[in-house]
Amino acid sequence: MYGKAFAPEYQGALTTLSVNSSLVDVLAAGTEQLRAAERAGARSEAARSGLAVAEAHRRLGQVGEADLAWKASYRAAREAKDTAAMAWALWSGGTLARQRGALPLAWRLLGLAAELGERGGDVVVRGYSLAGMAETGRIQGDYAAVGALHEQLLAEARKRGEARHTVWALEGIAQMHRNTGSYDTAYAMFEEAAEIAGRADDRRGRAWALRGLADIVSVRDGDADRALGLLAEAEVTCREMNLSSALAYNHKMRGNVLYRAGRYAQARDLYEQALAEFRAMGEPRGEALSRLGLAKSLARLGRPLHETAAELADLAQVLDRIGLRHAHRMVSRAQTELGITPTTPEAPEAPEPDTGPRASAEAGADAVPVPVPMPMPDRADVGSRR
After folding, report:
1. Domain membership flag for residue 223
2. At 1, is the pLDDT very low, low, confident or very high (cuts 50, 70, 90)?
3. 284-319 residue pLDDT tens
């Protein structure tokens, strides 16, 4: 039913790269081809090679370099009047924005990418961009708004037999079920995702599915040893493919498993490791979630209650700024668990995505012009804040 997984973001002369190619190798090949295309004045090829460069930098956690690369890819595509390549560059930029915690900007860029993908006749980038919008809404905890979109994209991916996209959709829906307490359904979907990814040789997708299975095994079954085994298997792939972000989330999940098992000192060490990794790559969502786990672990190890209370109150504000409603509820539960009176109200309903001047200003220096009226941003290179 499903063919071998492929990486549509590796384009032009880079189509021979595998979905499982080491990101270091992707970066080297992409950079070489980009320079050759620039020397030849081949703007469309430069845009498509630059996309691979941007994605390699992003997945390696090199936020500043990724920010420069996707914008350069967009400019080259615009000069070449290559609408589909423009869409792919915006998809990369939107995905990076989500990774950096700039969720309104991510929503805007991904929406523009989907629009250009449709205009340029590239159904794949349109699908990837809609998927990115769905994931952005899911991360914010707005399940009612994006649940149907996840299901639609899953049905489309199954119909086309596209393994990688099917795995992504299954994992996203499974995560929503897990967060709402439907553990059996979540487990079955993560398990199916792992099986499809394995048959399609999608090692990245399988690593994320194993992480999801480990979470369920830990929280539902209380089986820490099996959960840690699944995470260890996933970590091998993360290291071999240089998946910096996935590896950091793997370490954070390992901290979660150890915390649930009452192994607080070990959990503290893993949360500290994950926190350092997220800070190094400028990923605020992972950083905040690692801080939360670390605060709980330190409290269990005897940290004064007033220090823990101050830490959790600050985290609630951070998560509000990012717009993570589910994570905000996690802070509230932590306060209750540790006997701390909440000092902040429950998170409000998520606002409508910000598509105005503030979202544009978040783009930083040399913000890429997009095909709708859009104020020029301040000259502030937020992509370098790592």
Report:
1. no
2. low
3. 989 999 999 999 999 999 999 999 999 999 999 998
Residues shown for the chain: 386
Instruction: Give me the phi and psi of 60, to 5 degrees please.
Output: -85, -5
pTM: 0.80
Kindly report the number of other CB atoms within 10 A of residue 362's CB atom. Answer: 21
Is residue 45 a part of any domain in this protein? yes
Q: How far is CA 199 from CA 85, 155, 351, 360, in A?
A: 30, 19, 40, 41
Read off the tokens for 145. 């708004």
Of 269, 335, 333, whose CA–CA distance to 298 is shortest?
269
* Domain presence at residue 65: yes
Neighbours of 149 (CB within 10 A): 18
User: Tokens for 91?
Assistant: 């998809």
- Residue 46: domain span: 8-140
* C-alpha torsion sign, points 224, 225, 228, 234: negative
Helices (H), 41-162: 43-59, 63-79, 83-99, 103-119, 123-140, 143-160
Identify the CATH number of the domain in which residue 13 sits.
1.25.40.10
pLDDT at 182: 95
The dihedral sign for the CA sequence 202, 207, 208, 214: positive
Largest CA distance in the chain: 66
- Distances from the Cα of 18 to the Cα of 23, 26, 92, 184, 289, angstroms: 10, 9, 18, 33, 32
| Four-residue CA torsion sign, 93, 94, 100, 102 | positive
- Count: domains in the chain: 1
Tell me, yes or no, whether 290 lies in a domain.
Answer: no
Asked if 85 and 47 count as a contact pair (C-beta separation under 8 A), the reply is: yes
Q: What is the pLDDT of residues 112-138, one digit of tens each?
A: 999 999 999 998 899 899 989 999 988
> How does pLDDT run across 132-156, given as a tens digit for each residue?
999 998 888 888 878 888 898 899 8
